[in-house]
Amino acid sequence: MATAETYFDLIAQTHGEYLMNMRLKVLEFVLYAEHLAYTSGGMTYEFRARADYLPAIMEMNDLGSLRNWFIEKIATASHNVSTKANEKSMSVIETAKEYIQNNYSKDISLDEVSQAANISPYYFSKIFKEDTGEGFVEYLTRIRMDKAKELLTTTECSMKEICAMVGYADPNYFSRSFKKNVGVTPTEYKQL
């Protein structure tokens, strides 16, 4: 017949095995999450960065400590990936804006700008709208209209010249687009 002491020893042994299995799973999940963060560019791999993981986990004797350590490590990995994704998006948007600013006088397309930013046209369109609040065409048109307004008030260039300088091949289309976006025709704007 088992004594109370043997029963408690059995519970302690079972609890110890359970705790060890939990330690291993927590470590496994954290290492995998960090691996994903490293491969996605969200974290920079450092050879000794995880040297304290196993000793720290082995010192934990309760599930609450394991849980807190796990949450902290997963939150850090997630934050790093999220931050890196935002930085990358911002870098892509800045590259695209710069490309548009340098090439608005040419016949440029969303495909061309997304290629210059080195991302797919679909993803570019999505993050560009999220960042600027405007679609690509609206943004490009606004840049062109702002430059046209500047040229109309600061130069003596003809409408045809200004039209070409801001990326329009057809002066009639330019005039219609200007009126639609600014509220007056280019000639009326120049006289203001």
Structure description:
The protein has 192 residues and is mostly helical. It is 77% helix and 0% strand. α1 packs parallel to α3, α3 crosses α4 and α3 packs across α5. The mean pLDDT is 85.
Short description:
This protein is mainly alpha-helical. Helix content is 77%, strand content 0%.
Coarse shape:
rod-shaped
Give me the Rg, rounded.
Answer: 30 Å
Mean pLDDT: 85
SSE arrangement, N to C: HHHHHHHHH
Count the strands? 0
User: Mind describing the biggest β-sheet?
Assistant: none
Q: Approximately how much beta-strand content do the residues carry?
A: under 5%
Q: Which consecutive residue ranges, at least 5 long each, have pLDDT under 50?
A: none
Helix and strand composition category? mainly alpha
Helix content: over 70%
Number of helices: 9
User: Could you give the distance between the termini?
Assistant: 105 Å
Q: What is the strand and helix layout of this fold?
A:
Blueprint: H1 4-39, H2 53-59, H3 63-103, H4 110-117, H5 121-132, H6 136-154, H7 159-165, H8 171-182, H9 186-191
Looking at this protein, list some descriptive labels.
single chain; mainly alpha; rod-shaped
